[in-house]
Amino acid sequence: MRIRIFDSSQEAGTYVSALAEEVVLSRSQPVLGLATGSTPVPFYDALVNLWMCGLDLSKVVTINLDEYIGISSEHPQSYHHFMREHLFDRVDFESGNIYLPHGDAPDLDAECRRYDDVIARHPIDFQILGIGTNGHIGFNEPDDLLLARTHIVELRPETVASNARFFDDPREVPRRAITMGVQAILQAEQIVLMAFGFEKAAIVARAVLGSVRTDVPASILQLHRKVTVVLDRQAAADLLGQHPELRLSLS
Ligand code: F6R
């Protein structure tokens, strides 16, 4: 794993956008795997800036990790809405090249199979991930086992509590979601896991330095060949505490 630690999430986002640009320029049809939540926002801002500076994104295919079940894709807190607001409405992606799972599909099992088919047809070149404070990636929650394929998940209470910050009424926070499985994530050619803030410090250290365990889903990334962990100093605090030599390469 490559670890890069920045003074601010903005600097981190700019770095990740440069990694994404390399991928975009080296493929005829680049496939970016995208995440929602607060973490990727600085990356999306930086990517929009690159686009305004001349980077052509019109051939890019995007595949999102997950979506809530129980709210429509028009709901202001849906991940469809989030992606339109933070990225899709700001650059020139082709609408036919944008894929998100539909949490409001009438047949959710069929929707999971449809999404696996989308992923199979568009192998992911560059996968962006955030991490939950419980170690989830996508909505692959800590459990006795991790599912390979796209599936319906019951969100853990800590995930529901954490997501409540985006909703006016906490009773509205969805309890279920549809998420890409760990197979699709691990099959990505390159993965960038981002984390910012002190509240992520403990789980980042467990995911990066601890054993590979299904109750810390992000630890499975240790098995992947090309992962970059992009942190701010707060999220890196426990890593640096356990590996002071990392500090030297940062000064
Ligand atoms: C969202 C997703 C989640 C988030 C994670 C961190 O698409 O897949 O795994 O990345 O919950 O969320 P934030 O960035 O809001 O701390």
Radius of gyration, rounded?
A: 17 Å
Unreliably modeled segments: none
Classify the beta-strand content into a percent band: 15-25%
Given the structure, what is the number of helices?
9
Q: Please tell me the CATH architecture by its name.
A: 3-Layer(aba) Sandwich
Task: Spell out the helices and strands N to C.
Answer: EHEHEEHEHEEHEHEHEHH
Side-by-side strand order of the widest sheet = 1-10-9-6-2-3-5
> Percent helix among the residues?
25-40%
CATH class (first level) name: Alpha Beta
From the 3D structure, determine the CATH topology: Rossmann fold
The oligomeric state is single chain
Largest sheet: 7 strands, parallel
Bound molecules: fructose -6-phosphate
Number of strands: 10
Structural class: alpha/beta
Notes on the structure:
The chain has 251 residues and is α/β, with parallel strands linked by helices. The protein has one domain (2-250): Rossmann fold, CATH 3.40.50. Helices cover 34% and strands 17% of the residues. It has nine helices and ten strands. Helix 2 (41-52) links the parallel strand 2 (31-34) and strand 3. The structure holds fructose -6-phosphate. Fructose -6-phosphate is lined by residues 35-39, 65-66, 130-132, 136-138.
In short:
The chain has a single domain (2-250), classed as Rossmann fold (3-Layer(aba) Sandwich), CATH 3.40.50. Helices cover 34% and strands 17% of the residues.
Topology:
Blueprint: E1 2-6, H1 9-26, E2 31-34, H2 41-52, E3 61-64, E4 66-69, H3 79-88, E5 98-99, H4 108-121, E6 126-129, E7 151-154, H5 157-163, E8 176-179, H6 182-186, E9 190-195, H7 201-209, E10 227-232, H8 237-242, H9 245-248
Parallel strand pairs: 1-10, 2-3, 2-6, 3-5, 6-9, 9-10
Antiparallel strand pairs: 4-8, 7-8
The protein binds fructose -6-phosphate (F6R).
